[in-house]
Amino acid sequence: MASLAQAVVPTFADWCAVDVVNDAGGLDRASLSHTKPHLVRDIVSRRPDAEVSRWTALDVARTGEPQLITHIDQALTDSVVQDRRARAFFASLKLRSLIRLPLKARGRTVGVITFVLSGPGTRRYTQDDLSLATEIAQQGAIAVENARLYRKAHEEIEERRRAEQALAASEARYRSLIEASAQIVWGLNVDGRARDDLPGWRAFTGQSPADVAGYGWMKALRPHDRDSLRRRFPCSETKTQPIVFQATLVCADGGDRCVVLRIVPLFDKKGRCREWIAAGIDITREKMANELLAREKERLAVTLSSLGEAVVTIDTKGCITLFNRVAQTLTGWSEQEALGHSVNDVLALYDVRSGERLMDIVGRGLHAGERPYADERLLLRHRDGGERLVVYTTGLIRDPQGQTVGVVAVVRDITVQQRLEEDVLKGQKLESVGLLAGGIAHDFNNILTAVIGNIALAKALVPGADRVNHALSEAEKAAWRARGLTQQLLTFARGGAPVKREGSLAALLREAVPFALVGSKAKCHVFVADDLWTIAFDPGQLSQAISNLVINAAQAMLAGGVIHIEARNAEISGDDQQALPSGHYVCIVVADAGDGIPKDHLAKIFDPYFTTKEGRSGLGLTTTYSIIRQHEGAIRVSSEEGRGTRFEVYLPAQVGPAATEERVLQRERRDRILILDDEPALLTLLAALLDHLGYETSAARDGAQAVADYAQALREGRPFAAVILDLTVPAGVGGEECLRQLQALDPDVRAIVSSGYCSDPVMANFARFGFRAAIAKPYQLHDLEPVIRGVLVENEGHLR
What we know:
alpha+beta, six-stranded antiparallel beta sheet, about 40% helix, rod-shaped
């Protein structure tokens, strides 16, 4: 272009410009030549064509028509150029004449060539000049087209070079990524056959090049996975989807490897699958780790489920993240409800002393400088309002960097343990009282036995003397009141077990309850289940225990009211919170509607001598507690101030047929009874009582003498029908040792144990020691007769 422009200057034009059509349809200045080179820069920078629309090369490029302006003067310039500065510029160029022609090649305009005459002179362009200019333009068009083709070829070559460089860089990057990754990558034909010898696959599986040929690479898969994959090939559908599945490989060493295979289709221009790129990643370690984690989670879940404590984990925001089975039981919240919930809403913990609720039960462990909870006794309130005494402990959960990420809270229910501890403490208190009472009661009961027995005998011997009988009766009542005091003291004594007999509580309740309410304004409603089980109990002791509960209820309602008493069957399982062994029980309920017992008094009501009532001894409930305890039962109390008190007594039931009625003994002669006692007064009294009942007696003050008398009676053919043995004989052979010697002489000996010391286990479990019955001192004539009759009727054929 430059050569063409320079060729016509100055022979044909003072300056010549060549403009080339660009891709946007505009013009780019390709070359400019001027007779005065110093003006080229001004003309190029100013481009007057852009400011004179009628003279622009762009008009010629668009219309394809040449322009010939033979005469250019100032008037013409002023008429077409509006801008003042542009006019000044044109004036400086001193234009005289102008020819502008389109450069056409292959039927289209590729540029514009402009010929200009300027400066001083008279020459002007004519039509003849236009013809010459047209020939020059044709040569210029060929040059422009060649230049365009050259530039386009150069650009294509450069673009291809850049593409090849980018492809090479991409392939290098791809190879680096494959080599750096843990994946195995290989290529497959459209039908799934190996494209080459698959070096990556072989390095992983240990197969040889021959092994992987065709479909051989699939032989490294387990049969099930291999068959499943083989059915996916060939595939030439336009909507072929990637194949992703988990498979098991058999490696060269014989071990199994778990891999995830992802086989992606590559499509041709028509959208059909032409080949596959396969990638596999070994997840054996990850799978083993996941399986191990799953087993650990299962083990943890089983462990937490089997624990006897509630375990709760909480994040740093105070939300629950783990909630085991015991936690659900203690709170009443299900796991689904609790997870994600605020722990302060779920664990309702209260201070034991103040009763205030603890609202920040987690934060204390999270805040720096504050110690977590450690074995603190608190009250946990169930969703239904029930309360449990618990031990609350918290610990921090830390991540590997030592940062606190949460708290684990352990809640152990010690309600039953607390009850047992209270029972042990009560028992220890009763034992200390019993140690004092037991020694006194034994001697005192011997004295009372003599007093009561002689009074009863005197009344029997003087039947017609009313005034005498009245005096004796009053004395007898006083003695029995003294006996009642010793019986209460003996109830506290260690081992003061009841003398039990099997029977139903129905009759005892009907007799004891009305008697206890004599003089009270309260009324009683008694319900006894028709199928009530029998129990083994001491009628006297249990009557006293129930009477004490009824009296206590009546005193709670001095203005009157209804006491509800119920006797029903109950079964205690291991899950019940009664601190009792599992089994069958008879439950006795005594409930009043009085003022209730204050909470701070509930723990003390069974303590000896504790009372809030003026003039009372404070032994009633203590006696009841001891009696129930000696019957291997339990007593529970619940009370709410202003709404009354409820006592529940649980006694072991005897599930089975009731005891049969005793047969009446038909005696045809006086039976002989041997008596052993170290107190002469009691020997005399007992002999007189038995004589009054129609028995013949023989007395002994020592066990050795009793054995000798029994042996002599056997030799003479006049054996004793029964023996009554005092359990304790100071400085001599007592009843227990005496019975063993008698059994050596006569295995069928019928022995009755008697003692004023009821704390001895022989009195409560006489049958275990070989005795047929027991009678506690002091006793009356009507107490002695049924005991002897019961022993003799056991084997009527033995009597002579």
